[in-house]
Amino acid sequence: MILSMTGYGVATAEFTHGALSLEVKSVNSRFLDITFRMNDEMRALEPILRELITASVSRGKVEMRLGYARDSAARTARPLAVNAMAVQRLAAAADEIRRLLPGVRALATREILEWPGVLEDASLAPDALRAAALTLARDALAEFRASREREGGKLKAMLVERVAAIEAWVRRIEPLLPQIVAEHHARLAARLRDALGAADDERVRQEVALFGIRIDVAEELSRLHAHLGEVSRVLEAGGVSGKRLDFLMQELHREANTLGSKSVSPEVSGYAMEIKILIEQMREQVQNIE
């Protein structure tokens, strides 16, 4: 299965006073880059969530958002509880600051209450919230993977189509080569005889033979066939293949460039340009494959 690095998944869970939602999305990247957006009370879940992501993703810039949205009526009616441990840590930090800076005023009650983690929603059990978040993460990641598979299938179909198109151009070039080379040899030999004289036929043959080697593109065509076959094999095998396909695109582009530069026929030069355009289209899409 070819997987795209672009994907999206979301899952929600309803509670008495609100809803918990988890969203995961990704774009292409050379490496695996994971970012979390969540409230402080959920930070303890980050290592587990990271493990769930790395188990199914090897490359891409992944962002996971986890949030709890309360009902408008519950925002004023919900019971609140003070997190004693958070207050104690804040008080110890404030005492240390006053020891270092004696002139600093003490914290006001409002400042303490506004400190993250001091007030907790007593209507929502932390254990239940975290258990629900983990369930949502698994559901969202399943949807996320499904979207990557669908996108990967489209990318594979496009690449297979381009491979077939390049093969068709190569097959159009191959039968033209003997005639093109023979005609160019004849023209070159005629010009050399005019310049060197008929008495120097051996020199003419040498020059024609050397030039024939320089314009021979049979090796480039053979390598194009080989690289295209490897692209097809990698696409069929699936898995994490983006970097390998990117390398193959570079090799295909190099052979197509050489084919165009060695061509002595406007027709073959035009075909080489068409091949380069198709390779560039493939290269752009390969950047999105994991």
Note the main attributes of this structure:
290 residues; alpha+beta; four-stranded mixed β-sheet; two-stranded antiparallel ribbon; 10 helices; 6 strands; 63% helix; elongated
Topology diagram in text:
Layout lengths: L6 E9 L2 E10 L4 E7 L7 H11 L3 E11 L1 H6 L2 E3 L1 H17 L8 H5 L5 E3 L4 H48 L3 H20 L4 H15 L2 H20 L4 H21 L3 H21 L4
A few lines on this structure:
63% of the residues lie in helices and 15% in strands. The chain is of the alpha+beta class and 290 residues long. The strands form two sheets. The protein has a four-stranded mixed β-sheet. Strands 5-6 form a two-stranded antiparallel sheet.
Total helices: the number is: 10
Average pLDDT rating: 83
Q: How many strands in all?
A: 6
What characterizes the major β-sheet?
Answer: 4 strands, mixed
Shape: elongated
Measured between the Cα atoms of the first and last residue, the distance is 11 Å
Secondary structural class = alpha+beta
Give helix % range. Answer: 55-70%
SSE series = EEEHEHEHHEHHHHHH
Percent of residues in β-strands? 5-15%
